[in-house]
Amino acid sequence: MIQKTTLILMSLIMLLGVTSLAQAEVKQVTLRIDGLACPFCAFGLEKKLKKLDGYRSIKVFINEGKVNIGWKEDKPLKISAIHAAVKAAGFTIRNIKGDFVGTIEKEDDQFFLTMESTGQRFYLREASEPLAKDERKPGKSLTKATKKRLKKLASRNKTVTITGYVHDKDGITLGIEELKVQ
User: Fold this and answer.
1) Which domain range does residue 61 map to?
2) Residue 87 is part of a domain; what is its CATH number?
């Protein structure tokens, strides 16, 4: 009887563990880096990025000028710290793209994605490409159809995954490239 109870409890704990992994809020971000040309450059960049609080893994693709950073689910994604680390390594970020999991909320006439475990939030835009500096205003450029869908999701408190570009160094605006309801 005790063994059966223990087995059931262990199964529940494993199930809960799998569920929490599925709810990770920022699994990975991809940086496009200008000037990444050699293994020595990649090593210097990786060394700076490994100082970030929250990174889980780093993979540099020299030929593509790309860096994938795996992120810990309980740590907020600090875009300004990423920019600072890349700049300290002597490079420039062309763009940052990622998958972000959270719930849609509405404040005044603006919508944002809130990540539950960190409280971090991104104001939402309808933009699949990085924006020009003068276009980086929170909440700007949502179509009526997107606003209607976001309003419906906000009222139902559904968990969503948004794939898109972070549009500023403060990390407060996220361009919706793809939105999936979980």
Assistant:
1) 25-181
2) 3.30.70.100
pLDDT tens by residue, 137-177? 544 578 889 999 999 999 998 899 999 998 776 678 888 99
- Specify the long-range contacts of residues 146-153, CB closer than 8 Å, at least 24 apart: 146/176, 147/111, 149/179, 150/104, 150/106, 150/111, 150/124, 151/106, 151/111, 153/103, 153/104, 153/181
pTM of the model: 0.77
Q: Are 83 and 94 in contact (CB under 8 A)?
A: no
Number of residues written out for the chain: 182
pLDDT in tens, 103-115: 999 988 889 999 8
Q: Is 126 exposed, middle or buried (0-12, 13-18, 19+ CB in 10 A)?
A: middle
Can you tell me the mean pLDDT for 75-101? 92
User: For the chain, how many helices (H) and strands (E)?
Assistant: 4, 8
Residue 76, helix vs strand vs coil: coil
- What would the two tokens of residue 141 be? 């450029």
Taking the C-alpha atoms of residue 105 and residue 112, their distance in angstroms, rounded to an integer, is 5
Does 10 fall in a domain? no
Residue 158 resides in a domain: yes
What is the Cα–Cα distance from 148 to 121, expressed in whole angstroms? 20
Tokens of 15: 């199930």
